[in-house]
């Protein structure tokens, strides 16, 4: 089973095959083995997955997952540790999410991707608590308003030195897959920049 929490520009029940923006946290697995999959769609079909073995079982207690998305970068956090950074490198031809998005949470099955589901273990549930959003109300007439430095998240242009060290540790010790490791990574110019 896959439990996903995502920001997406798709309309509810929209065709996931169309070009769109999306930022995903996906939890894959069961039987005590869980992988955290992250993915980014930037006016395209995505395929920017990075996967991590977490140092904890996400089903035994609540944890904090956070996304910082501003004009400089997208940072994925697990328990306040940065686990993924996607920089805005549009000046190098890299697509970057810029569309207004909404939040969705789903539980779904993809046997081709994560294997067969033992339906006898159902029902399958995901629990959330202390959910909050700090965001900009997108204005069609003035989308640049969301880049205003009056919003604290727009003042965060880089990770702190402590965050950089934690991020490097996660990449070395917990990252098990990155789309930049695939043969088609030349289709993603950001792979050559990082």
Automatic annotation (TrEMBL):
* GO MF entries: hydrolase activity, hydrolyzing O-glycosyl compounds
Q: Does the UniProt entry include the keyword Hydrolase? A: yes
Q: Could you tell me the keywords of this UniProt record? A: Glycosidase, Hydrolase
Where the record annotates domain GH16, the positions are 1-128
Entry keyword Cell membrane: no
Q: Which Pfam families match?
A: Glyco_hydro_16
Query: Which GO biological process entries does UniProt record here?
Result: carbohydrate metabolic process
Q: What is this protein called?
A: Xyloglucan endotransglucosylase/hydrolase protein 2
Q: What organism, scientifically named, is this protein from?
A: Solanum tuberosum
């Amino acid at each position: 089973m896959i439990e996903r929490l995502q920001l997406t520009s798709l309309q509810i029940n929209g065709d996931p095959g169309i070009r769109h923006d999306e930022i995903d946290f996906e939890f894959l697995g069961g039987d005590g083995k869980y992988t955290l999959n992250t993915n980014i769609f930037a006016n395209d079909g995505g395929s920017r997955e990075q996967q991590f073995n977490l140092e904890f079982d996400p089903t035994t207690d609540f944890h904090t997952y956070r996304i910082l998305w501003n004009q400089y970068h997208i940072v994925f956090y697990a328990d306040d540790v940065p686990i993924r950074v996607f920089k805005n490198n549009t000046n190098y031809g890299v697509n970057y999410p810029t569309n207004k998005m909404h939040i969705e949470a789903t539980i779904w099955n993809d046997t081709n991707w994560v294997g067969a589901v033992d339906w006898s273990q159902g029902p399958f549930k995901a629990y959330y608590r202390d959910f909050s959003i700090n965001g900009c109300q997108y204005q069609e007439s003035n989308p640049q308003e969301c880049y205003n430095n009056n919003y604290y998240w727009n003042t965060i242009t880089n990770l702190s030195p402590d965050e950089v060290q934690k991020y490097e540790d996660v990449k070395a010790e917990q990252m098990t897959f990155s789309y930049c490791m695939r043969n088609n990574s030349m289709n993603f110019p950001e792979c050559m920049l990082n």
